[in-house]
């Protein structure tokens, strides 16, 4: 308790000493001057310098402490947290010093953790194989990692350079990809030394200013591996389908020859009909693969949606859900018709009732959303993840091209396609096309 009130004791002692000294001096002056009221006025005035000296001396350590506190606060503001204070008296000022030192320790630990995170993040950014460029509103490169320096700066630093100057020294394919806008893939080099890259662009605000982040990822090796795996799968599928058709054809041809040799002509039409059926199936199989491999660029034109939906409805049964006068869209009629007919056919083959198969059409601010809906069994997670890949099929005799072809057509139009299970059962194939 005594430590807590040491400042009050100091003030009390000084006040008492000043009062006693003033009284003693007043008595002495009264005896000398024989005028009490003059003595009472003069005594305190004479002792004021002495009181000021003692008060200043008593407060000198506190004044030093306050200057030290102001100095450490200024250091904290400048980001220097290496200072601490010491105060030996265990009073209110001692508690203030302890709290101040604890604050400094906390700020120092936070700063150290922040520096460690920054070092970790910088290490990850610098050593990622993805080339990263951060460009400011004035088209100046703010940051470029090691991969960006190697790809666009001949191994030299690119920070501070004009992004337009860097593009002038870059391959034409990269410039074309940036002019097109958005994300995309481009190829650099000739057929013998071809490199494939994926470009991703993101904009955000940094310190109140708009910046753009460009990510360039080399996909050559990955796509080569995927290409090999795809070709292997294509070969397996084609070999399986050819064997399933050619083996019965060869067997039936041999049986037909035996029937002719024996003169049993009445059984010959059945054998020939089976051969014809297998040959036509094989012809359709090859035709589907050829159509997928040779999909031409879409011939976009203005098409009346109402008339287009009516043409679809004349070929396959479905329920239409959309505005009676939807307006005009821009797409390749033949390709989109083929795409939606395949999707509607799949919906009918899903086990859904015919009246539950629906085609939905909605106008969005900058696009059209087309949905093919059914109430079949839907898809599990594994099938959803792979259903849009070429040659992936869960059907016994499926080619795995229907949904892949729909995806190719949607993306060729600048749109996208997605699959999702419906609440209550069934599947929704959602396609978005530019308006």
UniProtKB/TrEMBL annotation:
The chain crosses the membrane at residues 36-55. Its EC number is 2.7.13.3. CDD domains: HATPase. It catalyses: ATP + protein L-histidine = ADP + protein N-phospho-L-histidine. Residues 237-435 form the Histidine kinase domain. Keywords: ATP-binding, Kinase, Membrane, Nucleotide-binding, Transferase, Transmembrane, Transmembrane helix, Two-component regulatory system. InterPro entries: BphY/WalK/GraS-like (IPR050351), HATPase_C_sf (IPR036890), HATPase_dom (IPR003594), His_kinase_dom (IPR005467), HisK_dim/P_sf (IPR036097), PAS-like_dom_sf (IPR035965), Sig_transdc_His_kin-like_C (IPR004358). GO terms for molecular function: ATP binding. This is histidine kinase. It comes from Noviluteimonas lactosilytica.
């Amino acid at each position: 308790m005594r430590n807590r009130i040491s400042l009050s004791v100091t003030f009390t002692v000084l006040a008492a000493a000043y009062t006693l000294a003033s009284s003693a001096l007043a008595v002495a002056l009264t005896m000398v001057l024989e005028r009490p009221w003059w003595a009472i006025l003069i005594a305190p005035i004479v002792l004021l310098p002495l009181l000021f000296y003692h008060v200043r001396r008593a407060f000198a350590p506190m004044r030093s402490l306050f200057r030290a506190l102001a100095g450490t606060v200024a250091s904290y503001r400048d980001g220097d947290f290496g200072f601490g204070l010491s105060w030996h008296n265990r009073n209110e000022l001692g508690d203030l010093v302890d709290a101040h030192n604890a604050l400094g320790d906390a700020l120092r630990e936070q700063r150290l953790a922040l520096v460690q995170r920054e070092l970790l993040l910088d290490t990850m950014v610098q050593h990622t194989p993805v080339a990263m460029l951060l460009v400011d509103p004035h088209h100046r490169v703010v940051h470029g990692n090691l991969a960006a320096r190697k790809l666009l700066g001949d191994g030299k630093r690119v920070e501070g350079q004009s992004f337009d100057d860097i593009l002038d020294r870059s391959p034409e394919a990269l410039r074309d990809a940036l002019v097109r806008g958005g994300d995309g893939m481009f190829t650099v080099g000739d057929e013998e030394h071809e490199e494939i890259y994926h470009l991703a662009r993101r904009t955000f605000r940094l310190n109140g200013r708009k910046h753009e982040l460009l990510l360039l990822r080399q996909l050559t090796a990955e796509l080569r591996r995927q290409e090999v795996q795809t070709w292997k799968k294509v070969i397996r599928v084609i070999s399986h389908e050819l064997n399933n058709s050619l083996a019965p054809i060869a067997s039936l041809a041999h049986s037909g020859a035996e029937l002719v040799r024996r003169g049993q002509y009445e059984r010959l039409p059945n054998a020939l009909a089976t051969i014809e059926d297998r040959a036509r199936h094989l012809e359709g199989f090859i035709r589907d693969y050829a159509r997928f491999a040779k999909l031409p660029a879409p011939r976009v034109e203005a098409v009346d949606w109402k008339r287009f939906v009516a043409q679809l409805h004349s070929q396959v049964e479905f329920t239409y859900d959309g505005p009676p006068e939807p307006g005009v869209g821009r797409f390749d009629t033949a390709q989109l018709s083929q795409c939606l007919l395949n999707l509607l056919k799949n919906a009918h083959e899903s086990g859904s009732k015919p009246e539950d198969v629906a085609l939905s059409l909605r106008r969005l601010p900058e696009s059209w959303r087309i949905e093919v809906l059914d109430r079949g069994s839907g898809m599990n997670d594994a099938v959803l993840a792979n259903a849009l890949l070429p040659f992936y099929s869960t059907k016994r005799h499926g080619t795995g091209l229907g949904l892949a072809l729909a995806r190719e057509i949607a993306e060729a139009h600048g749109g996208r396609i997605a699959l999702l299970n419906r609440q209550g059962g069934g599947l929704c194939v959602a396609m978005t096309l530019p308006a």
